[in-house]
Design a protein that fits this description.
- The structure holds two protein chains of two kinds.
- Chain A is of the alpha+beta class.
- Chain A contains three helices and nine strands, in the order ααβββββββββα.
- Helices cover 17% and strands 29% of the residues of chain A.
- Chain B is mainly beta.
- Chain B has a single domain, classed as Immunoglobulin-like.
- In chain B, 12% of the residues lie in helices and 33% in strands.
- In chain B, the strands form two sheets. In chain B, strands 3, 4, 5, 7 and 8 form a five-stranded mixed β-sheet that branches. A three-stranded antiparallel β-sheet of chain B has the order 1-2-6, with no helix packed on it.
- The chains are: A alpha+beta, B mainly beta.
């Protein structure tokens, strides 16, 4: 019987899958992202997170010098699960990568711009393109509505030094 | 009535035997892949207690039961070959499910050689099309030293 039920669930789910957006999740329509002015007034309800959960940047290392402007970043998550934006499930969330920016307010949805990248599909790694120079990276987990958990799950803020790719590597790429 | 329920039972049993072979596997982008970030192939792990870090490129992680295109959850296959890819990944000590959407798992393995392989599957535990599985790696847990 269970198998029959499963088949039914699968066939229903296939239909839903066809219409699902593949990449960046949008903010849930029932809770509009507040304007700058409203953001200072309205505090969002935060989702609890277990005390032993933590996130970290698995790569690059703090103070790493990378010889490419196309940098892989992988997100480490321990004692916690990853779920796409819009998913309500205890002890899960999705990653946001903060680039060259301090932490945003903890009781608001995380901004969505080039300094605050959202991984609402539930991605656990990405590539970022950064110009040569010194940059900071930090991960901040967000809940179903992109609001940080309580306590917030954030990685250490790391610094990386980006150097232009060596000429030989550029030649190879072409 | 009795004949009816017998028919339903037979149908259910046949479906179970057939597994989910008729269900269309969920699509995955061609460039999606899963891989074991740590441990490395051939890694020697004294004590046999370690975290497995699960890597995923060009797709997303979602807890079991959550249906979203191009997502799924990890399974670690320990000391076993790939199961049939058109059916639910078994759930036993050789097929570990990470249905919360975990990307790291703590394992404890006895001394000896062990194989580890990741297999990604959809919200009902059925691998995708194309199926996403990692290279099968071997790790070595050295014998415990006797004092």
């Amino acid at each position: 019987m269970r198998a029959l039920q499963r088949l039914m669930i699968v066939s229903c789910a296939v239909g839903v899958a066809a219409s699902a957006a593949p990449a960046r999740a949008q903010a849930p329509s029932d809770k509009p992202v507040p304007t700058q002015q409203a953001a200072t007034q309205q505090a969002f309800k935060r989702t609890p997170a277990p005390a032993d959960a933590y996130v970290y940047i698995g790569w690059p290392n703090d103070n790493e010098t990378v010889h490419t402007t196309h940098i892989k970043v992988w997100f480490g998550t321990r004692n916690f699960g990853v779920a796409p934006a819009g998913t309500t499930k205890p002890n899960t969330g999705h990653h946001h990568l903060l680039i060259d920016t301090p932490l945003p307010p903890m009781d608001q949805p995380i901004p969505n711009d080039k300094n605050h990248q959202h991984f609402g599909l539930g991605q656990t790694e990405t590539f970022v393109d950064l110009p040569p120079g010194t940059h900071t990276l930090q991960i901040l987990m967000g809940d179903v509505d992109h609001v940080p958990h309580d306590p917030p799950l954030m990685s250490k803020k790391i610094t990386i030094h980006v150097r232009a790719a060596p000429a030989s590597a550029v030649a190879e790429a072409h | 009535m009795r004949r009816n329920s017998l028919f339903v039972l037979t149908a259910a049993v046949l479906t179970m035997i057939g597994g989910a072979a008729n269900a269309d596997p969920k699509p995955m982008p061609d460039n999606a892949k899963v891989y074991i970030i740590w441990p490395a192939d051939g890694q020697v792990i004294p004590g046999g207690k370690f975290w497995v870090r699960m890597g995923l490129s060009n797709a997303g992680v979602a807890p079991a039961g959550i249906e979203k295109k191009f997502t799924g959850h990890h399974h670690i296959l320990v000391d076993t070959d790939l199961p049939p890819l058109d059916q639910e990944v078994p759930n036993d000590k050789n097929h570990l499910h990470y249905g919360l959407g975990q990307t790291e798992a703590r394992l404890e393995l006895p001394p000896g050689r062990h194989t580890l392989q990741l297999l990604f599957a959809d919200e009902v535990h059925i691998p995708h099309n194309p199926p996403l599985y990692s290279k099968k790696i071997t790790i070595i847990v050295p014998p415990e030293r006797t004092p």
